[in-house]
Amino acid sequence: MQKHELQNATATDRLSRSGYCKKHGEYVEAGRKLFGHEIWFGCAKCEEEERKRQAELDKLEEARGRAWSYRVLFGEWLPKAFDLPLESFEVVDAAMGDAYCIAEEYVRNFHRYRSEGRGLFFTGTAGTGKTKLACGVLKSLFPDVVGCYVTLSDLGDRVRQTWRSASGESAPFTEAQLLNAVYRAPLLVFDEIGTIAKPQDGELLFKVINTRYSNLLPTIGISNLSLTELCSLYSDRLSRRLEERSRTVVFDWTPWQERHQQNENGLFQEGER
Ligand SMILES: Nc1ncnc2c1ncn2[C@@H]1O[C@H](COP(=O)(O)OP(=O)(O)O)[C@@H](O)[C@H]1O
Ligand SMILES: [Mg+2]
Ligand SMILES: [Zn+2]
Asked: What Gene3D superfamilies would the database entry show (predicted)?
């Protein structure tokens, strides 16, 4: 009997009436009666939209915080000239189109590649847009994924800076913080591998690549050298690590600036004729 009364009480507590939302039109508004007061909940679709908007804002704020932590360690999240989405990579021939499509597909299916620890390896002539395309990947994954960008020599210099700071000068970060960032970033763009052959950087390079490899974390490695050349410069252990879970993209077209100079000269000559 008591139970029956309780059920009735609950039933009468719930209210509903027809409502009108400027955005969503007519709807059934839910409400509740509490100690004799009526409370109305408004448009459920508006509420859901507001909840989603708030979740997006929270995600953005968290992502900005992560980018900021890379900035503290490496000066910038991305180099200023490359802080642009993937679409800013202009495609003017088929080979560039292939490279762009690989990068675009990588972004689209990043969650799968991430779980498999699969990365990319960009190799080829200087000035062909390797850094630009890789930074485009990072930028396009933001804010879902906040990856880290660093060049090998910059990482090496910063690590050495923390050693010096032990004897007086203070660096705003520790070696452990720097290494943790590159070891654990959900995606690392590791640029200029092998450009400057500092022997001490070879060890650091292998440590970073190998740690990420062991933890199934994806890396985009960038080098002017091929895997074979890297192998003879550093070690075959390194090139095997890079090769096993990375798709190699060869940037073998005319460097961007040269191509533009050629175009400008071409136009100029035409104008003269
Ligand atoms: N496809 C492209 N579209 C627009 N700009 C490009 C493209 N490729 C290269 N660039 C520009 O050319 C310059 C060299 O590119 P960069 O990414 O530094 O080459 P790499 O890393 O291969 O040496 C940069 O200023 C870059 O913005
Ligand atoms: Mg570059
Ligand atoms: Zn509404």
From this structure: P-loop containing nucleotide triphosphate hydrolases (3.40.50.300)
